[in-house]
Amino acid sequence: MTFDRKEFYGLTFSWYMTDAVGSVAMFMSGYGIIPKSVFVDKEKHEEISNFFDNSPLLFNSYLSPDNQKVVEGNSNDIFLEVKAAKRGLFVFDNEEYTDNYNLIALPEQRLKLSDLPRKIQEHLKLLSFEEIIFGDTKRISLSEYFECE
After folding, report:
1. Are the C-beta atoms of residues 43 and 130 closer than 8 Å to each other?
2. Which residues face 26 on adjacent strands?
3. Residues 101/139, Cβ–Cβ less than 8 Å
4. Which phi and psi (to 5°) does residue 143 adopt?
5. pLDDT tens digits for 78-117?
6. How far apart are CA 108 and CA 34, in angstroms?
7. What's this model's pTM, rounded to 2 decimal places?
8. Measured at the alpha carbon of residue 111, what is the angle toward residues 124 and 56, in degrees to the nearest 5?
9. How far is the CA of 148 from the CAs of 11, 15, 21, 82, in angstroms?
């Protein structure tokens, strides 16, 4: 079943994509554009989100966008971006009202698409940047790669 961007406009909405080398990233937006392909199948989106939301934290640290190691206890684990990076994901956040997404947290060790259950791999293959490597990218302009809404 499809769903609509309008349902989430103004709310923090997260989705997941892969890059050219099989790294996984979480993208967050309230007001920015989102690829239409994210909204093709609500059940698949929820399955991917639930998988990552319930995955264990793999590391007790992550990297800031300038590659500085951030070691901390559980005090900041309430933040989505901290949890995602500690799960091995790159994290990009939207510059409000633009199509730009900036890298805000990096995993100390990246989670690879091949590390994920087959069903999640299949879902994520439809949400992929073929030309981008997340670890080499500080900013992504989504409209250059996807039809968005």
Report:
1. no
2. 16, 91
3. yes
4. -65, -15
5. 577 888 988 999 999 998 888 899 999 888 889 999 999 9
6. 26
7. 0.87
8. 100
9. 17, 13, 23, 26
